[in-house]
Specification:
With 116 residues, the protein is an alpha/beta fold. Helices cover 40% and strands 16% of the residues. The longest helix has 16 residues, at 15-30. The radius of gyration is 13 Å and the shape is globular.
């Protein structure tokens, strides 16, 4: 599944989310993965557990429906000012049998896996 949480810029409000989704789909296609669902949230709430979209991610993981969560970059989960929430959520995903993968090209090229 692909999780998109992007800042809505004032001049082109949908551009960041559109690029995040395109990037995620390309990442999945290049690796032979299937995106079964795209879940989106509006950027702004720092705690992912308080966002409807991220709660949907957790629901899918708990049900065993997905094994991998694709996210553009760490700040889509939580901003730098609340970085500890990224670790909390990454650990939660792992404990429930799901991998977290970043799709942004520089992180993906490094094979970056979240440290949780």
């Amino acid at each position: 599944m692909l999780y998109v949480c992007a800042d809505r810029g004032p001049f082109m409000p949908g551009l960041a989310a559109e690029r995040a989704e395109e990037e995620g789909r390309l990442f999945a296609r290049e690796r032979g993965m299937t995106i079964t669902e795209v879940v989106s949230d509006e950027y702004g709430e720092p705690d992912p557990a308080l966002r409807d979209g991220w709660r949907r991610v957790r629901e899918l993981v708990e049900s065993g429906s997905i094994t991998t969560v694709l996210v553009r970059w760490p700040s889509a989960i939580a901003p730098e000012s609340a970085h500890e929430l990224r670790y909390r959520e990454g650990s939660w995903l792992r404990r429930h049998g799901a991998a977290l993968r970043y799709t942004w090209a520089p992180l993906a090229a490094m094979g970056a896996q979240p440290r949780c």
